[in-house]
Amino acid sequence: MKKYTLLIYILALTGWTFAQNPADEWFEQANAAYNSGNYDTAVVLYEKVLATDMESVPLYYNMGNTYYKMREYPMAIYCYEKALKLDPSNEEVQTNLAIANLAIVDKIEPVPQSFIVRWWRSLRALCSSDFWAWCSVASFALLLVCVFLFLRSRSIGLRKLGFFSGMVFMIVFGLSVVFAAQLKHAAATQDQAIIMTPTVTVKSSPSETSVDLFVLHEGSKVTILETSNGWNKIRIANGSVGWLEVDKMLSF
User: Fold this and answer.
1) Rounded CA gap, 84 and 183, in Å?
2) Does domain 2-101 have CATH number 3.90.280.10?
3) Choices 2.30.30.40, 1.25.40.10, 2.60.40.1740, 3.40.718.10: CATH for 192-251
4) From CA 243, how far away is CA 192, in angstroms rounded?
5) Tens of each residue's pLDDT in the chain, 252 residues
6) Is 230 in contact with 179 (CB distance < 8 Å)?
7) What's the pTM?
8) At a CB cut-off of 8 Å and minimum separation 6, what does 169 contact?
9) Which of 9, 115, 202, 230 has the most CB atoms around it within 10 Å of its CB?
């Protein structure tokens, strides 16, 4: 009887703990505040959800929309970029990010990429890392079926089917594993940032007294190459490289 009493107590305590978790309620309240036009309240509630270490595409997407309505475009871009790190295939986020980028000063032309690089990145961005992971599991299972069909079938036609189908599933399996790993790594690595200061001067070295190279404005996206003594070595889309103070940007 004591064992059952202890089990009931543990389950009740666990249920009480879950009931006390207000993140879902805050998210719903934030959505309601956004729909009512109370954007300041919505942002505060979304930030409270983030403070519980909960991340999701809808959360960052809604936060981005809220900051955009408040005309805080750098933060809107930051939130959309965070959402795309979790799901690069989300078309709504891609569309809103493109709209938000129209509101910033810098229009940086990216360095042209080769067809292979563009094709690879476009194919990888078709789905989320979770989808690619499940795809790898499914294709591996089908590959095993094809191997079994090739080895055990007495029909030449079925053996050919097993062989060529197995080759296809092997390729799909390999690509899925690579895509899932790359997207997971990208989501876990904070190697990009959004400029948060209205105007910044990029330096030739990590020092205030070094040579000025070029100017960036808030909302611009940069890639972080390395960090040294409170400075980030950054690269922008057109390939230009320089140094900026860490506190001038928000990394993701």
Assistant:
1) 10
2) no
3) 2.30.30.40
4) 14
5) 444 454 444 444 455 444 456 888 999 999 999 999 999 999 999 999 999 988 999 999 999 999 999 999 999 999 999 999 999 999 999 999 999 999 999 999 888 888 999 999 899 989 888 999 999 999 999 999 999 999 998 899 999 999 999 999 999 999 999 999 999 888 888 899 999 999 999 999 999 999 999 999 999 999 999 999 999 999 999 999 999 999 999 999
6) no
7) 0.81
8) 139, 140, 142, 143, 146
9) 202
